[in-house]
Amino acid sequence: MNLSISFYFTFDGRFDYLLTDLQKKRTFMKKALFLTTALVSLGLSVQAATYSGNGNSGFGGPIGLGSLTLTDNGTTVSGTVNKGPNGFNDVLVLYIDSMAGGFADTSGFADGGDGLRKAISGFDGGGNRSLLTFTGGFTPDYAIALGPASDSFGGLWQLANGGGNSLNFVSSVNLNPTGANNSPTYTFSFNVSQIGLSPGSGATFAMLGTYIADSGYRSDEAVAGNDVGTQGWNPFLQTASVSYTIVPEPSTVALLGLGLAAVIGARRRK
Q1: Residues 148 and 213 placed together within one structural domain of the fold
Q2: Average pLDDT per 10 consecutive residues for the chain, totaling 270 residues
Q3: Alpha-carbon distance 84 to 148, whole Å?
């Protein structure tokens, strides 16, 4: 005996559809497959976020009147600095909070090993310092320093208290171009595993960008958050940070899709 249920739809007039149980199941499976495929495609897509500068221009505005864009594919984070007016003559330091613990301020950083280490430390290698204090639960573990013109290099360091060469160099971040201060954009990249995160994990990290000379002399310019203080070797206070979430791996999204499909199926059977 065939069991059938009548469904009534209105579409350019009224008519009846008689669907057998088999036809209903086929229809449901097609919808479930479509939902899962759509979610997997979403998981494979590239995440993107753009963060504006803080609007200040103490060093001419290349960072404070510019922006930073991040994208990732679950494994590699790619960044683009969209320069504002005037030359990118100094160093953009991006502090990253990706793990438990971290640092409440830069008071213990005294690495005068090179210009980028000085910029991360906010320290000139002698007696001058621009202390940066972090707030709101933002306690960074890593820092990226980009000095395309001043140092012709961009790198990633793990933060650590101490003197010369105490910051733990992790890797180059493939800064491009270097040796130029007036490119409209500068690109860089790093692997999420290099900041202690698992690829495709969907994890979130927090970030703050401060613009500073490689002598530790800090400007009032910031991006992806904000810090406030009097420009120079003076104390600054971080007042805002941003967060970025890594794309989850496709299998995670597929499982989510199958779970949603199962829920829909259970509700239809009731």
Answers
A1: yes
A2: 39 44 51 44 64 98 98 97 98 98 98 98 97 98 98 98 98 98 98 98 98 98 98 98 91 47 49
A3: 15
